[in-house]
Amino acid sequence: MGTGIRVSRLTGVLGARADGVTLCPDIDPAEVSELRAALVEHEVLVVPGQALSPGAQAGFSHLLGDYSPVPFVQPVPEHPEVIKVVKEASEPEAFNFGGVWHSDFSFLDAPPAFTVLHALDVPAVGGDTVWASMTAACDQLPDDVRETLEQVTAVHSASASYSPAQQGLHSGLSGMDIRTSEAAHDTREHPILVTHPETGKRSLFFNGTYIRGLRGPGIGDGTEAGATQERKLLRWLHDFTTHVRFTFRHRWSNGDVVLWDNRTTQHGALNDYGGERRELNRTTVAGPTPAA
Q1: How far is residue 233's CA from residue 239's CA, in Å, rounded to a whole number?
Q2: Is 259 in a helix, a strand, or coil?
Q3: Which H helix or E strand runs over 86?
Q4: Residue 97: pLDDT above 90?
Q5: From CA 220, how far away is CA 18, in angstroms rounded?
Q6: In terms of DSSP bridges, do strands 44-47 and 153-157 run parallel, antiparallel, or are they unpaired?
Q7: Confidence class of residue 1 from pLDDT cuts 50, 70 and 90?
Q8: End-to-end distance of the chain based on CA atoms, in angstroms?
Q9: Which residues pair with 116 in a beta bridge?
Q10: CA 208 to chain centre
Q11: Given its phi and psi angles, is residue 177 left (phi above 0), alpha (psi -120 to 50 degrees) or beta?
């Protein structure tokens, strides 16, 4: 028998909506399996009309996998797996958390597989989130670029977002406790071209915020020519992977839960709601080390 979940595509590239399900820690395992299958297929899954407490959101996330640690951002009191993403109406000039293209914490040895974001109080207009499919981008790589990228690894670091030089930026958000650290300068290398462990599909593991360098033949090799090639390829990759043809844009409503696959997407939240309040709760699900 079917579960009653109805999944409908939202664009021709990525994104789907799931109706007929109530998310909770004791949801039927068959529904969890169907949601997970839809999530890895469509990369972003919108589940409207939900009402999850922080504890219930963490409990539901456990059904998708283990908790993925969150560096630098302090959690909700008494809920160590939940962070609050909030910008107050009184902070119109403040930076909005997640407001640049990124894949959540790609600088970790094993970045999150999934993110679960629950809208609690969002503006009537503004504050949309946009995702880009790195699977679709990979499928359309020119052959010569693909051949180059097969030999390239990316150097990931949190330095552009969470080094002490950025503390003033984050301190503009009174509802979040973000503590920068010198540890943000630590680096980890991951392949640029990866294989999804569940679907077997190839995708680009790229985002312009946490990738601070590239390493490969003639690229990032310490020479002036290598540095030039590195800069050109980083710029090209950013422009290519965030092109509108690979994207899905979601307009939030209170009660929406959006799940996405960090292994195959990057995303960014728009900061176009000055003078209005925006609050969401976020949990992350552990994933494996990216593999070529």
Answers
A1: 10
A2: strand
A3: strand 83-87
A4: yes
A5: 44
A6: unpaired
A7: very low
A8: 38
A9: 259, 283
A10: 12
A11: beta
Q: Which ranges constitute the DSSP H helices of the chain?
A: 29-42, 54-62, 134-139, 143-149, 159-162, 167-170, 224-241
Task: Give the residue carrying structure tokens 């974001």.
Answer: 117
Yes or no: say if 191 and 290 are a contact pair by the CB < 8 Å rule: yes
Q: Over the stretch 131-148, which tens digit does the pLDDT of each residue have?
A: 999 999 999 999 999 999
Angle at 210 between CA 64 and CA 236, to 5 degrees: 115
Q: State pLDDT tens for residues 30-49.
A: 999 999 999 999 999 999 99
What the block records as the tokens of 107 is 């600088």
Kindly report the CA angle at 45 between 43 and 51, in degrees rounded to 5?
Answer: 150
What would the DSSP string read from start to end of 136-162?
HHHHT--HHHHHHHTT-EEEEESHHHH
Cα(161)–Cα(158) distance, rounded to whole angstroms?
Answer: 6
pLDDT tens-place string over residues 223-253: 999 999 999 999 999 999 999 999 999 999 9
Output phi, psi for 220, to 5 deg.
60, 35
- CATH numbers and ranges of domains, the chain: 6-285 (3.60.130.10)
Model confidence pLDDT, tens digit, residues 8-22: 999 999 999 999 999
For the chain, what is the total number of helices (H) and then of strands (E)? 7, 15
The CA distance from 132 to 43, in Å, is 9
What's the predicted TM-score (pTM) here? 0.96
Q: Is the confidence at residue 115, as pLDDT, over 60? A: yes
Residue 104 token pair: 């959540």
Residue 127, CA atoms < 13 Å, CB-side half-sphere: 26
Determine the Cα–Cα distance for residues 114 and 96; give it in Å rounded to an integer.
Answer: 21
- Going edge to edge, which strands form the sheet with 16-19? 6-9, 16-19, 44-47, 257-261, 114-121, 278-285, 83-87
Dihedral sign from CA coordinates of 77, 79, 82, 88: negative
Using CB atoms within 10 A of its CB, is residue 195 exposed (0-12), middle (13-18) or buried (19+)? middle
